[in-house]
Amino acid sequence: MSTTITVIPGDGIGPDIVDATLKVLDHAGCDFTYEFADAGLAALETTGELLPQTTLDAIARNRATLKGPLTTPVGEGFTSINVSLRKQFNLYANVRPVLSFKGTKARYEDIDIITIRENTEGMYSGLGQRVSEDGSEAEAISRITRLGSERIVRFAFELARREGRKKVTAVHKANILKSTSGLFLKTARAVAADYPDIQFDEMIVDAVCMKLVMNPEQFDVIVTTNLFGDILSDLCAGLVGGLGMAPGANIGESSAIFEAVHGSAPDIAGQNLANPTALLLGAIQMLEYLEMPEQAKRIRAAIVDVIASGDRTTRDLGGQHGTTDFTQAIIDRL
C-alpha cells in the first residue's frame, strides 16, 4: 500500500533539490504518493501567507513531510516559518546527524555524531521579545521546563540505545545560566540514571566547541537546548564538509518534517548547480522514521559511492557537474 507524504518544494534551490530527491526515492522503489503544498515566498506570492492553512492541513494529514529550504522575509511582522512549524506540530526533537564521506575533502575522515536539539523552548520560543521605544535596549525570555528537558534527553537516550550508540553528552551552561541551563542539566542527570547501559557525560558548551574542533571523535550523541543545539549542529556540519552534507529531522509525537538544513541559495536557483545531498540524507532519515530501512540503506550506499568515486559530483564536492548529473549518477547505482 502506497504511503502518502507531504512535499513542500520551498524557495530558491528548493524545487531543484526536491525534484532530485523524489526521483531518487522513486528509483529506490519507495512507492510514495506525494501531496504537494506551498510555504515560504512561493506561498506568499500566490496566497498572501507564508504558511497557508491548506499546507498546515496537508502536514497534519500525513505522517511525514519532506521540505525544501524556505525563505522568511527579513523585517518586522514575519515570524520564522521553521519556528512556526515546530510550534504548530510540537516537533520537539531536532535530529541532525553528521557523517564523514570519502571524497568531500573535509578536514576530518571519521566523524559520526548526532546532535539532538530541543526544538520548542529556550531562546527561540519568542517569549517576551521587546524593544524599548527609543531603541536603546531589547530583551527576550528564555523558558526551560522540566517536561521539555526530560522529553528531549529521553529521546536522545532512546535513540542511542536503538542505534547501538555508546555515549550521550548533555551540553549546558549551568555554571552561568544557573536557572534555565541548571534545570536542563539536573533533569538530564536524572534521566541518565534510567540508562545505565549508555555512558553519560555532561559538558559546558564552551568546552564542547573547543573539543569539537580539536578532537571531535570523542563525541557520539549530543543533546542540548535550542540555541546551543542550533550553533553546535552547524559546527558539526563544518567537520564533514559543510551544510551541503547536513540533513535535519524535526520529530514530534504524531508528525515529522525532514529537510536540508541549509538555506534557499536564491543566487543559484534554477541553474542546475545545487548539491541535493543534504535533502537526500534528510529523505534517508524519513525512510528510517517510516521503518523502510532497506530503501534507506540502498540510497545511502549509492550516495557514498558517487561521492567517493567523484562520478558526476557537483562543484562544492570538487566536481564539474550539476544537480541533474549528480542525481543520475545516484540513480544509475540504484
UniProtKB/TrEMBL annotation:
Arranged from A to Z, the UniProt key words for this protein are: Oxidoreductase
Q: What is its EC number?
A: 1.1.1.41
Tell whether RNA-binding is among the UniProt keywords: no
One of the entry's Gene Ontology molecular-function terms is: isocitrate dehydrogenase (NAD+) activity
InterPro entries associated with the record: IsoCit/isopropylmalate_DH_CS, IsoPropMal-DH-like_dom
Give an example GO biological process.
isocitrate metabolic process
**UniProt entry tagged with the keyword Kinase:** no
Q: Per the database record, which ranges form the Isopropylmalate dehydrogenase-like domain?
A: 4-330
Which Pfam family, an example, fits this chain?
A: Iso_dh
Family as reported in the entry's similarity comment: Belongs to the isocitrate and isopropylmalate dehydrogenases family.
Q: What is this protein called?
A: Isocitrate dehydrogenase
Species this chain originates from: Pseudidiomarina aestuarii
